[in-house]
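tokens incoming
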């Protein structure tokens, strides 16, 4: 009998590849169903004096400190410090750090309360662009 010999769909690598494909396709579907609209972001009002010096800044209508900054206004040192503090693996994951999610899930379940988070900078941006109550469903959407 000719054909495939010893095809083993139970091999762990096969399962990992299938899981990766399903996860990737899930992200594509979620992104298509819940697209980000960056144009709807509201920023706080700022007042400058005649020399361009900031006098006062106001919260947004949803009581957040959201001030617009141009990329050239942020120094490389600030960018580096921000990434180190908020998401030191920023350059090494696709927006979701699965190791951090697993660690946070384990810590939170074993302690019975929220003791650590796993939000990446990308996930924080998603939450800022589409503010919603903090639920597991909304966390998945982010």
């Amino acid at each position: 009998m000719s054909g495939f010999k010893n095809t083993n769909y139970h091999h762990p690598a096969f399962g990992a590849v299938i899981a990766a494909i399903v996860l990737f396709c899930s992200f594509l579907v979620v992104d298509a169903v819940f697209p980000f609209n960056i144009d709807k972001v509201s920023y706080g009002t700022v007042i400058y004096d005649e020399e361009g010096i900031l006098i006062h800044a106001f919260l947004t209508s949803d009581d957040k400190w959201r001030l617009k900054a141009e990329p050239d206004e942020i120094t490389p040192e600030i960018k580096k410090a921000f990434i180190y503090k908020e998401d030191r693996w920023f350059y090494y994951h696709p927006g979701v750090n699965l190791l951090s999610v697993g660690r946070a899930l384990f810590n939170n379940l074993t302690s019975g309360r929220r003791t650590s988070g796993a939000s990446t900078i990308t996930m924080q941006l998603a939450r800022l662009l589409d503010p919603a109550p903090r639920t597991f469903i909304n966390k998945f959407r982010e």
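note: The beta strands are 46-48, 54-57.
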